[in-house]
Amino acid sequence: MSTGPSGSASDPLIDLSSKDMACNVGGTKGVQRVVAVDDGAVLSFKFQSYPDDASKMSYDPGHQGPCAVYLKKVDSAIKDEGAGDGWFKIFAEGYDASTSQWCNQKLIDNKGRLSIRLPKGLQGGDYLIRPELVTLHAANEGEPQFYTSCAQAYIKSSGNLVPESTVSIPGEFKHTDESLTWNIYDGMDNAKYPLPGPKVAKLVAGSSTSSTGQTEGLLPKECIAVKGDWCGKQVPSYTDETSCWKSSEDCYAQADTCYANKIATGNKPCESWSKQLCEVIQADCRAGKSGPPKVDLLPKLEKIDNGLVFEAQNEGASTSPSNQENKPAEEVKPSASATPAAAQSTPEPTPAVEKEAVVAEDNSKPAEDPKPDMVISAPPATTPSPTTVICPPGFQCVTKHTTAVVTKVKYETVYPKQKRQSLHHRRHMHSL
């Protein structure tokens, strides 16, 4: 995934003809993990402005617009580049007149989570799962902004449901679409907002599947630490000073590889590896001890509260969120000693998920959080939190943005007698 001036997965996607529209910047290349999810499982996608600090703002409240979730059935979630035909929509919501909220605002209220229950009875096998947020604060100036990413998943199902038709991404969205030129500041009736992209897919019976089980994307048994595609393995044992220092060299060589594997959520797994293993081995060498110490730095699965869960829709179905009691999903949450790489805002761009950011109800070892691991490296806690901007009635509001070299993207929204400014530290990451 790119982390240079040309763009990163935390930046909004503006070129609607780019392959990045499918799975974000760098998303044509899959990661080496695929998460297994049950038929009809609840998936929870976490969006946050600071990928390596979930305690900060999840999503800029100035970002108003619709949400959607797409699926693509593929032969290999790792090898498929995402871009192209095969995508079908299972959920979409724009403006909810009953609550006077855009879907993105509901996501903020839900602690940055877009939680969706998969349709039950889909054909089993490999899928790319693509959450999508669209922000409209600059749409009237010809610049709608997309935030997306792809999760690599294996759906454990013996069902036979398939979409009646599919669409191509890129190719489905045009700058002239009414949904992407909608002026949210000009007194338009948002309840009449037309959703971007295709209609929610109609699922029909296809051939039944008799899956033999997941065969790729599994976490190797010898891994004792992970970060993106990096897998830390136990170092050789040692009984004397010579073998101890060789083991230390092996440990730090693996640490170098870890740091070289750049993901959006930063280097905390590498720091834990160095501190809890490599430094301990060096201390053993000086003290004449045998080893190595036994450590397990893999991220631990913890139960999470999905909050608001949207039900997958069939063509013409309701967009109402689920009122049923939802079984908590399992999420890889950083422990005090190790933080896994996590995937896809103005004034603060919201991180995208690299083919990898999905949280599922599953008991297997987690795939890195997704083709991004919503994964990213965040800067200091001194960045001011943006405030909600409301365009005064009767005024035409203009949104401008400039990109600060490599590390920051600066967005400014200018109004008569009023100016708002916010900084977003570039992140990048990650993976589903």
From TrEMBL:
EC numbers, comma separated: 1.14.99.56
Taxonomic source organism: Massariosphaeria phaeospora
Lineage: Eukaryota, Fungi, Dikarya, Ascomycota, Pezizomycotina
CDD domains: LPMO_AA9
Region listing for Disordered, in residue ranges: 315-383
Keywords attached to this entry: Carbohydrate metabolism, Cellulose degradation, Disulfide bond, Hydrolase, Polysaccharide degradation, Secreted
Residue span, Auxiliary Activity family 9 catalytic domain: 10-193
Stated name of the protein: AA9 family lytic polysaccharide monooxygenase
Coiled coil: none
Domain description: Has a modular structure: an endo-beta-1,4-glucanase catalytic module at the N-terminus, a linker rich in serines and threonines, and a C-terminal carbohydrate-binding module (CBM).
Domain of life: Eukaryota
